[in-house]
Amino acid sequence: MGGLAAAIGLRRAGWDVTVFERSAGLPATGTGLGIWRDAMAALDRLGVGDRARRAGRRQPEGTVRRPDGTVLGRLGADVHLLTRPALLGVLADALPAGVVRFGEAVTWQGCDHDLVVGADGIGSGVRRSLFGVEPRPSGSVGWRGTVDFAVPAGGETWGRGVKFGLTPQADGRTNWYALTAPDGDLTAFSTWHDPIPRVLAESRDVLRHSLDYLPPLRTYVRDRVALIGDAAHAMTPDLGQGACQAIIDGLALATALAAGDVASGLREYDRVRRRTTQRLVKRSLLLNRLARVRRLVPVRDTALRIALALAPAPSWSADLEPDELAG
Questions:
Q1: Residue limits of the FAD-binding domain (predicted)?
Q2: Which of 66, 118, 194, 256 could form a disulfide with 265 if both were Cys (CB 3.0 to 4.6 A apart)?
Q3: Distant-in-sequence, close-in-space partners of 264: CB < 8 Å, separation ≥ 6
Q4: Could you tell me which CATH number the domain at 2-61+75-135+215-310 has?
Q5: Backbone torsions φ then ψ of 40, nearest 5 degrees
Q6: Please, are residues 263 and 271 in contact by the beta-carbon 8 Å criterion?
């Protein structure tokens, strides 16, 4: 996702770009993504914002609840919902044929280019070879799935050491996700409020995976190489910011390199993006740990209720640069 965003921005800045994608093609299925306003602004500046809006839907106001359905607070609706395949399709369609080369796994050392962008995810081989840094487990696992019916609104339900979330999609289906301890399972949610039991009963192809994060890197760049997205700052999904920050990374990198000087452009990209994204990694991990609280749950819920009542709609990345790519 970050790689496609960077490719669009760099082409608009006059670069000749090739995207090497090891998969055979774009995915046909995938979970829902919440695109917050700063990421949507980045998509606008890349020229694909309107297409992204048409490919998804605006998120209706949601709620945060206890397992019995008691409302702790309300979530704002300043988010646009798209499935991962839909957003990847919007980004890929903005590039000319031949720019994205599917089924080509390459190493950065084998790329004879002025600039190499490592957008190869949380298990990044580029990052591993440059810095030797691996992701760390958060102590929780995530579960994801989709059901073929709509829910009126999304939101999350927080229990004792676990949580469950619902995300309505534009096609009338619903994506869901859950967080448990590594030795937990989905039976923890079987007695929770509607429609959670029905969602679990009608789900197919449920995915389970460790929720990992990346410790802070000293830099996102080295020589002619830049890391973006999860390769640079993988975070737990608790803030819903992984895709958003990858998109913003792509725009920020292209903006910093618009003048054409690689060395100074990479330094500027690192200055603009590293501290912001690493703060988000820490905040997301903190929220992950709060969701896993097993003692003093009423105290946590009270604090959560107050935070939801007082919190303004978040603007996660106030460091977007002036619109140098709008032409």
A1: 218-284
A2: 256
A3: none
A4: 3.50.50.60
A5: -65, -35
A6: no
The string of pLDDT tens digits covering residues 57-72 is 888 778 999 999 999 9
Q: Are 80 and 108 in contact (CB under 8 A)?
A: no
Q: Could you give the residue ranges of the DSSP H alpha helices within 14-154? A: 37-45, 49-55, 84-93, 125-131
Given the structure tokens 């789900």, which residue do they identify?
203
Spatial neighbors of 133 by CB under 8 A, at least 6 apart, are 127, 214, 215, 217
Give the pLDDT confidence of 132-173 residue by residue, as tens digits. Answer: 999 999 999 999 999 999 988 889 999 999 999 998 887 888
Neighbours of 190 (CB within 10 A): 11
Q: Which pLDDT tens digit goes with each residue over 252-299?
A: 999 999 987 999 999 999 999 999 999 999 999 999 999 999 999 999
